[in-house]
Design goal:
alpha/beta; 6-stranded parallel beta sheet; two-stranded antiparallel sheet; 12 helices; 40% helix; 10% strand
């Protein structure tokens, strides 16, 4: 069961929130330093440095039984949902003890135990939570589903279809849109005739709000209110979080880092960094210094140990890896689609009936 945060951050909960945000930040920074030089993580990596506030705050309100699907910038949400750091890092190294057996990598990171998944398809993170929310309402549970999308998802039709169904059936779905101004390297104003996103959601029949993700008290209250409304049967809610990534779209620091945004823009956003401001505020109270040193030391030890364990772990067996993706036979449900019994998968379409199913 997650902890509870008040509307205003007090001393104790400020430390808890600091730990959640700092943990995500340091995990990403360590992974960035390891990613390119060693070339042992053979998967595309989308880091969330600068966007830690939303997954950190959500971690205090979500339950293990809630369903969450994130976009491909998913590391913070995986950790916020409760997923194992050791298993996450091992997954990036393609190891057998990874959260998905070393086969998913970063962009499809998931945890069955904590009902978390992510995906590379833009807008795709709306669909699975939509179905999960329908099941939750059908079963009469008090759980919710959370779809984490980026502003680029508003370029995709599946987002509007999902919102329409969520509103039509009043499903327990929270849609979190991280608006970091860019879909890959293209800013919102260059993609949409009307760059404001909230009116598009409201037109689908969903209540929503926009919040500055760097204003922690407001972000806390906004998410708290929305989740409480959903759990009480109030139907879907949309929260647009204005945020910013200090890193590149993919990878640590590619050569085109400044081709689509200026150094001044990045510097101005970094000056607003909520983690830095929270840290400074906590350090202004001398009684917090030893506690924060302990938190920082604990996080460093955890991350370093996770990376070392991942490097030392074995790769998955080839037969097992192939077996999770391919079989030399058809599933029983396919039997009715063939004129003659099929003993093994043959490929092609010649053996199928040339008629509608």
């Amino acid at each position: 069961m997650a902890l509870s945060l008040p509307a205003t951050i007090d001393k104790i909960d400020s430390l808890a929130l600091y730990r959640a945000m700092q943990r995500i930040r340091r995990v990403e920074e360590h992974l960035m330093s390891e990613y390119a030089p060693a070339e042992q993580m053979r998967c595309p990596m989308h880091f969330c440095v600068g966007q830690e506030s939303t997954p950190a705050v959500l971690s205090f309100f979500v339950r293990q039984s809630d369903v969450m699907m994130s976009h491909y910038r998913s590391h913070g949400y995986y950790l916020g949902k409760g997923g194992s750091l050791t298993e996450m890092v091992a997954e990036f190294y393609g190891k057998a003890n990874g959260s998905n057996g070393g086969l998913a990598g970063s962009m499809e990171l998931g945890s069955h135990e904590y009902n978390f998944c992510s995906g590379a398809i833009v807008g795709g993170s709306m669909v699975i939570p939509l179905g999960a929310a329908f099941a939750q309402k059908y079963r009469g549970t008090n759980d919710i589903s959370i779809a984490v999308m980026g502003d680029g998802s508003f370029d995709e039709g599946i987002s509007y279809e999902s919102m329409n169904l969520a509103a039509l059936y009043q499903l327990p779905l929270l849609i979190v849109c991280e608006n970091n101004k860019y879909a890959a390297n293209t800013e919102v104003a260059k993609r949409l005739g009307r760059p404001e996103l909230l009116p598009k959601v409201e037109a689908m029949g969903i209540k929503g709000s926009v919040v500055d993700g760097y204003d922690l008290p407001k972000l806390i209250e906004c998410l708290r209110t929305a989740i409480a409304a959903i759990r009480s049967g109030g139907g879907p809610r949309y929260i647009e979080v204005e945020t910013y990534r200090f890193c590149a779209h993919v990878g640590p620091q590619p050569d085109n880092y400044l081709e689509y945004r200026t150094a001044q823009e990045i510097s101005e956003q970094q000056a607003r960094d909520p983690l830095g401001k929270l840290r400074a505020k906590l350090l202004s109270d001398p009684s917090n210094i030893s506690l924060m040193i302990h938190i920082d030391t604990e996080i460093e030890s955890e991350v370093i140990s996770a990376i070392a364990a991942a490097k030392a772990a074995p790769f998955p067996a080839l037969d097992w890896a192939l077996g999770t993706n391919w079989s030399n036979s058809y599933a029983p449900v396919a039997d009715g689609y063939f004129r003659d019994p099929q003993s093994a998968f043959q490929g092609g379409q010649k053996e199928t009936k040339l008629e509608p199913f």
